[in-house]
Amino acid sequence: MITLYQFPRAWNIPNPSQFCVKLETYLRMAGIEYRIAETLPLFAPFGKLPFIEDNGQKLADSRLIIGYLREHYGDSLDGHLSAEQSAQALAWQRLLEEHLYWVCMYSRWQYGAENWQINKQAIFQGLQQPWADVVAALYRLRIRGQLRGQGIGRLPAAHIFELGRRDVAAVSAALHGKTFLLGNRPSSVDASAFGVLINLLACPVSSPVKDYALTQSALVDYCRRIQERYFPELGEPKFGN
Q: Does the N-terminal or the C-terminal CB of the chain have fewer CB atoms within 10 Å?
């Protein structure tokens, strides 16, 4: 059986990591059996979570892992997509994972002392003091460098949040009148979307982007629908601050 290594659960959502949520949601959508092992990035290949172990092989990076799962366990999610829909899925994945994700990371790791403390407690809850504070501070510096390298971290906060608001508006418009991002059947891009959006809407970290997203009923209903369908043991997500 596949072992999924990820952060401990927090905030009444599947995981405080967008990519851990993405991968576990994919496994559940695809009906692939797995077990969870809680860990921290210190012990992960590439120093990042999630990663999996299957048949003695460790694999990291959610994109590569999903490619492996498709090859070895079949592609039950995206076979119904047209070429046009597959292209749309890739574009949405890029917007979510390579742009809106970084806006959310800025909100958690750099925007305000209270947000940082909430984030630190959830991410590093498995470490004892004083190591928790030391490791958290080192990772915060690392994330700051990644934000600057990506480009988001070089902008004023107001500009960052305006860019994030545009992302949120685009996804909300795409979901209007649909059950899933590409229609009435789930596809792998919904795992990506849910991972980012549930961590925006239902974590206790505040930001102007979150405030705007909470006004978009299509996004709130989408996240509620996916959590109730694929993570019923968690109950309804708690939206708001």
A: N
Residue at 66: amino acid letter: I
pLDDT value of position 241 = 67
Q: How many CB atoms lie within 10 A of CB 224?
A: 16
Task: Find tokens 């390298």 and name the residue.
Answer: 149
38 has a pLDDT exceeding 80? yes
Please state the separation of Cα 162 from the chain's center in Å: 20
Query: 3 phi and psi, to 5 degrees?
Result: -105, 125
How many Cβ atoms are within 10 Å of 171's Cβ, its own excluded?
21
Please give the C-alpha separations between residue 146 and each of 7, 67, 102, 143, 190, in angstroms, as whole numbers: 20, 25, 9, 5, 25
Query: What confidence category does residue 218 fall into, taking pLDDT thresholds of 50, 70 and 90?
Result: very high
